[in-house]
Amino acid sequence: MGSALPIGEPAPADGALPAEVRVDPATPFGVYLHVPFCRVRCGYCDFNTYTSGELRGARQDEYADTLLREVALSRGVLTGAGGLRPATTVFFGGGTPTLLPPGDLGRMLAGVRDTFGIAAGAEVTVEANPDTVTDAVAAELAASGVTRLSIGMQSSVAHVLAALDRTHDPEAVATAVAAARGAGLDVSLDLIYGAPGESLADWRSSLETAIALEPDHVSAYALIIEDGTKLARQIRRGEVPAPDDDLQADMYELADDLLGGAGFGWYEVSNWARDDAHRSRHNLAYWQGHDWWGYGPGAHSHIAGVRFWNVKHPAAYAQRLAMGESPAAGRERPDAEARALESVLLRTRIREGFPVAELLGEGRHAVAALIADGLVEGPAALHGRIVLTRRGRLLADAVVRALTD
């Protein structure tokens, strides 16, 4: 399930990093905990997730204990690479983490705390489907140390949710937000635009509903059709239309207008926050190239310039850990050129932008043309930063190509 793993060199059975790799204690350390279970597979989903019928050889009720074995293994790996750091962010993603009992999520978080420590003021996020959040669930999560709930709203319009195979009632979002607020949790709402049959008016309704719920953070992602998904097959058979690029561009601009008018500032191409304190610090760590360890089947990690990824199926993941082996399937160490390209790709997406001084060769010469084309902010470039205009955000891939060709 989900996209194929990268091709890299085999990872050692003990998970050890290359002998010469040393952890920089000044680099923030994030933790990602993957929970790969869903009640229903959404038609657009390409993530490494599994419904109960697909879980042959793995048990959901044993998952927390299995994942904690990887946490324990990683302690030895990181100690061998120069030391441990407290986690500055923790993110439970999926799948649907809240399909597990809150106590299981709490035990996983406690395992991270006992192994590494969790920094004071750390951001601890749990992703949740709206229909899995009750007052009791939110309260137990908060008591365990969770600080933030990221709710998969996607849309407020019933026929759009149906087109995406989402099973929750639109009214469940407000109930989930109220439960989170009652427990003292910050709230992020995730939206998707460009579903088959979704109009600009539908999208406006979803945005206005989301804003009225007064979240701290909103993510809005254009629907992307991934090979191998149900939705891709439906489009190929002509059963539903493919997303319209021009309509999706209009939807993005509407989101930026409405969210900006409601006091949300963009800080990454697809993300808006009520203020800087409510940005997703965990996701910023990805875009800024910090270190993180991803636990769980199919999870990816980045430690001191080494990237590695776990076997995908929960059964294979559990089997390796039961044998005392690392679940890592492969790893790679990108060279300087690849790291430079990735840095431009990721850091141009955020509001702070990319330093002009770090551009290589022809990239610097492209800046003037990008300003003239309205893709890069002129005043920011004069101050040494590549910052995307709104049009530039819509054409971010083209900007990256121009800066790296």
TrEMBL record:
Boundaries of every Radical SAM core domain copy: 23-262
Subcellular location field: Cytoplasm
Pfam family, one: Radical_SAM
PROSITE patterns listed in its UniProt record: RADICAL_SAM (PS51918)
Keywords, ordered alphabetically: 4Fe-4S, Chaperone, Cytoplasm, Heme, Iron, Iron-sulfur, Metal-binding, S-adenosyl-L-methionine
Parts forming coiled coils: none
Domain of life per record: Bacteria
UniProt function note: Probably acts as a heme chaperone, transferring heme to an unknown acceptor. Binds one molecule of heme per monomer, possibly covalently. Binds 1 [4Fe-4S] cluster. The cluster is coordinated with 3 cysteines and an exchangeable S-adenosyl-L-methionine.
NCBIfam families (UniProt xref): hemN_rel
Similarity annotation: Belongs to the anaerobic coproporphyrinogen-III oxidase family. HemW subfamily.
Designated name of the protein: Heme chaperone HemW
Organism: Microbacterium alkaliflavum
